[in-house]
Amino acid sequence: MSIEKIVVVEDHESLNHQLSYYLRDKKYTVASTTTLAETRKYLAQDSFDFVLADLRLPDGTCLELLKELQERPQRPVVVIMTGEQAVEPAVECMRHGAFHYFVKPLSFDELEAVLARAGELNHLRHVTKYYSKHIGDDQDGEILGRSPAIE
User: Fold this and answer.
1) Is the dihedral of CA 31, 17, 61, 100 positive or negative?
2) Bond preceding residue 89 cis, omega within 30 of 0
């Protein structure tokens, strides 16, 4: 399953509009927000595949959001972006489940590459979920067949 629905969380209006416009032009469904509170509302109302979020927002950091999303069974792929060059925030974000970490300015080519990888991850999550639901439905766990190696 590919990425279809994205939340862009960026408090700088011009960058928020630029990212949202670019993603819509690529045929993604995009919700754009400028605060954690708005983002939480969107995520509570609908399921999204991908969140592209600025690390620092007027009402907190996206580390809070990452921690909250880890508790969900259906969590979107989260990519953090920031203007900070420091390594510590990147490590902390990755430790809490961020898929990728951009240092601004980000390139659209790099964003496309990350979206493609995130789509592959989403596909693997869905396949794994499907097979974990269906394993054992038709079988009792016994090995089928006979061979000297199995015996």
Assistant:
1) positive
2) no
What CATH number was assigned to the domain covering residues 5-134? 3.40.50.2300
Q: At what angle do helices 36-45 and 62-70 cross, to 10 degrees?
A: 20
State which of 49-58, 64-73, 124-133 shows the largest mean pLDDT.
49-58
pTM above 0.70, yes or no: yes
**Integer CA distances (angstroms), 5 to 17, 49, 51, 63, 101, in order:** 16, 5, 9, 21, 19
List the structure tokens of 79: 């990519």
> HSE on the CB side for 145, CA within 13 Å?
4
The two tokens of residue 65 are 């959001």
**In which band, very low, low, confident or very high, does the pLDDT at 87 lie, cut at 50, 70 and 90?**
confident
Q: Round to whole Å and give the CA distance between 78 and 146.
A: 47
Report the C-alpha gap between 99 and 88 in whole angstroms. Answer: 16
Q: In this predicted model, what pLDDT tens digit does every residue of 55-80 receive, in sequence order?
A: 999 999 999 899 898 888 778 999 99
